[in-house]
Amino acid sequence: MTDPLIVARNLRKEYGDLVAVDDVSFEVAPGGSLGIVGESGSGKTTVAKMLVGLERPTAGRIEIAGTDCSAPAKGWRERSRRAQSLQIVFQDPYSSLDPRQSVGDALREVLVVAGLGRDRTQARARELVDLVGMPERVLGSRPSALSGGQRQRVAIARALATEPRCVILDESVAALDVSIQAQILNLLADIRERTGVAYILVSHDLAVVRHVTDDVIVMRYGAIVERGQTGTVLDDPQHPYTQLLRESVPRPGWVPGAGATT
Amino acid sequence: MSVAQVASVVRTRRRSRLSHLGVIGWLALAVIVVFVFVAAFGEALAPDDPNAIDIAYANVGPIPGHPLGFDDLGRDLLSRLLVGARSSFVGPLALVALSTVAGTTLALIAAWRRGWTDATLSAGFDIAFAFPGILLAILLATLFGAGLAVAVIALTLAYTPSLGRLLRATALRETGMEYVKAFRVMGYSDVRIVVRHVLPNLMPFIIAQAIIMFGYATLDLGGLSFLGLGVQPPTADWGVMVAAGAPALLQGYPTQTLAAGTCLVLAAVAFGVLGDRLARMWGVE
Amino acid sequence: MKSFLGRRILLGVVTILATTFLVHIALYLAPGDPIDVLTAGKPTTPERLEALRAQYHLDDPFLTRYFSWLGGVLHGDFGQSAAFNTDVLTLLTPRVPTTILLVSCAFIMIMAFGLSLGIVAALRGGAIDTASMATATLVAAIPAFVSSFLLINVFALRLGWLPAIGLGDGSPLDTARHLVLPSVALALAAGAFVARTTRASVRAELGRDHVATATVRGIPRRLVISRHVLRNGLLPILSIAGLLLAGLIVGTAFVEQAFAIEGLGKLLVTAARQQDLAVVQAVTLILVVAFVVLNILVDILYWYLDPRVRSEAA
Predict the structure, then answer these.
(1) Which residues of chain C lie closer than 8 angstroms to B130, CB-CB?
(2) What sign has the CA pseudo-torsion C106, B142, C294, C175?
(3) Please, are residues A30 and A5 in contact by the beta-carbon 8 Å criterion?
(4) Of A164, A239, B57, C220, which one has the greatest count of Cβ atoms within 10 A?
(5) CB distance B226 to B243 below 8 Å
(6) DSSP 3-state assignment of C42?
(7) What is the phi/psi pair of residue A48, to 5°?
């Protein structure tokens, strides 16, 4: 078996008296996919932020591609080196792009910062919008001219620009309409097949997690309550909290007042 | 509509055309353009030598060729008003430029570093805010002597924290946006994120505030010149002219004081209105 | 209440101490020997120099100098004026009541006219609203040093209703007549600002859901307005009071200068022009202390009137 791409060991994050993340450990293999499920406040987004160096863990260790990434990067050189391994797509498609930058400028800037020669950025930007299923002419568009789903495609293209080995999707489809969600999820599955990128998908939505990931961990109050293969955990949850999560999802045939225990 | 969507709509509106200024906004812009033109070419426009004294004409009213008449020393009032525009705007220009640069820098540092840097700077802003700028200007004039440069420096010390305070709140919101986090994860340097992304997005707010500030600066510096603590006579300057015309006003010749005062008020109102309209147009009130 | 009051007073004391420190070190910031600054460069007798050296403890280490000076100030010993050749305290004593009188009159006018104009504009709406707010916007931009002369020109010189300058012969009636124009000049811009703030705040309050609910419930409009709209709508005025007070205190410098009134403001300006540091130090301190104390009083009033702040502070 190959070495894991991402290793998180005994991660802990405290905000004053509040323990947001408590003793969380997991691994992601190269090309693998992990779902992190839980309600809002369960600590799942804090885990994502610690992985990409936006938050400093109170305790614990993070290794990405064999290097220690426990603390946020010191200086932009280290930051830019880490950027080649791990990227993130945020939840809010409306604020995750600089409103003043056209799609093309945004993509080219990432490529220039990553050290790609200016002569090659144009071609690569075209490849990227094609990869996320958008026509070339969006390169000239400002974010304000795009829909939520289109912006999220741009954010995904931007995250993939430097060919990272793993992308964290932090509730990346939660703000979108259900039909658009399905399109984006299919796109993600397709990209994974074509590029072999690994995913960490953070979501409160079990259906989304099932769609994209092989393994899953379930978090509550900052701690992991259950883990395993996605299909197994979601079809036959062992922990009462996972059962509760599963039951609280409205399904077709649901009748108000009939109870959700079917 | 989510907050983010509202913000997005607002951001779209930023690029809206100048036609959204409204009649009042256009009027204010026109007044400013005229004033700026006069400030630039006042000497060429002046029909007479603004410093030519002729006691025989002291306080004489309008005569052909001298539509506003003469001041207490027989100098042509219209010429002095036209030439005085430059002196009345150069101070505010320096003041606004200095305090905008300083206030923006401090606000960006506070918003970017957060934590104790932010706490320290904010506390500094709050304490400095409690000390009136005019009072500081009077104190500094006592120490270093009265003059425009001392007045500008004193007011810069007073304006910087008030702009910093205002801008810090907006900058905090901008640096909290997800695109800023995304850039950090993508390996952009702090300087690149702040200078190439955060600052340009704050520019509409900064520009509108600077224009509003220019109105206040005109009145504050004009007031200090009136007190004898800014521009010094015999330089033609609106604030100085308000004071110089006071004795004549008491004798029934109010033209110098009132004309110079009107110019100051007109400029202040025009800058205030334009800044206000621009802020509304760009959605950055 | 205690913690809130304590915090406010602490901040006030810090501001005042910071000001005394700033005002004191001003002496050493000036170019040249402190002794030259204190004499404003005028030729002085050796005895006078000795007295100044003692008053400012120029031969002691810095902190000792500061605290001795501060101790003197607390006992009313502000030193000697270089320009007026007398005790600073003798200069201050007759001027303090004059300035307090002027500021009080202006404050009453601001509240009376600013509030009522704002309320009427908000409640009546229509042409009255538009016209009064346009006027207020313009008036708010007229600084005291311009409005003073406008008032003198129209009401003293053209119409002859009121005296132009000075404070008169000292009889109460004459003083009152002389105070009208300066008070109006001091109050005008601030009053217009209050009118605009009041109008906006009452307008916002009128649009609130609970006001609509009360109206729908059949509560008489008069009652809805007095009980809900005005009570909540007038609170924000208190929050701009700090800005207002700073404007009034600084404004006395301009108004007293324009109307030739012998108050603290005119004294400050005259002293500054002659680089008479002892006087400027004293007046600056008095003005800042007045400003800080008034601000604390406003905050306490706000706390007393607004239950939301009260529960937050608890």
Answers:
(1) 15, 242, 246, 291-292, 295
(2) negative
(3) yes
(4) A164
(5) yes
(6) coil
(7) -60, -45
Secondary structure (3-state) at B66: strand
Partners of C81 in beta bridges: C86
Of A55, A53, A50, A54, whose CA–CA distance to A9 is shortest? A50
Superfamily of domain A6-99+150-230: P-loop containing nucleotide triphosphate hydrolases (3.40.50.300)
Question: Residue A99: closest CA among chain B residues belongs to which residue?
Answer: B11
- DSSP secondary structure string, chain A? -PPPSEEEEEEEEEETTEEEEEEEEEEE-TT-EEEEE--TTSSHHHHHHHHTTSS--SEEEEEETTEE--SPPSHHHHHHHHHTTEEEE-S-TTTSS-TTS-HHHHHHHHHHHTT--HHHHHHHHHHHHHHTT--GGGGG--GGGS-HHHHHHHHHHHHHTT--SEEEEESTTTTS-HHHHHHHHHHHHHHHHHH--EEEEEES-HHHHHHH-SEEEEEETTEEEEEEEHHHHHHS--SHHHHHHHHTS--TT--TTS-S--
Contact C284 B261 (CB under 8 A): no
Which residues 6+ apart lie within 8 Å of C164 measured at CB? B250, C152, C156, C157, C181, C259
CB A139 within 8 A of CB A126: yes
Calculate how close chain B gets to C137, using CA atoms only, in Å.
Answer: 8
- Does ipTM exceed 0.90? no
CB C121 within 8 A of CB C195: yes
Find chains touching chain C: ≥3 CB pairs under 8 Å: B
Any residues with CB less than 8 A from the CB of B152 and at least 6 apart, and which? Answer: B91, B94, B95, B98, B221
Domain ranges for chain A, please list them: 6-99+150-230
Q: Which helix (H) or strand (E) holds C115?
A: helix C115-124
Mutate one of B129, B135, B273 to test the C interface: name it (highest C CB count within 10 A). B135
pLDDT in single tens digits along all 285 residues of chain B: 444 444 554 554 444 566 678 888 899 999 999 999 999 998 888 788 888 788 878 787 788 878 888 888 878 889 899 999 999 999 999 999 999 999 999 999 999 998 898 888 988 887 777 678 899 999 999 988 899 999 999 999 999 999 999 999 999 999 989 999 999 988 898 899 999 999 999 999 999 999 999 999 999 999 999 999 999 988 889 999 999 988 988 888 898 999 999 999 999 999 999 998 998 888 777
Distance of CA B19 to the CA centre of its chain: 24
Q: State whether CATH 3.30.160.20 applies to domain B85-281.
A: no
Where are the domains positioned within chain B? 85-281
User: B284: distance to nearest CA of chain A, Å?
Assistant: 15
Q: Does A114 touch chain B (CB under 8 A)?
A: yes
Distance from chain centroid for Cα A139: 24
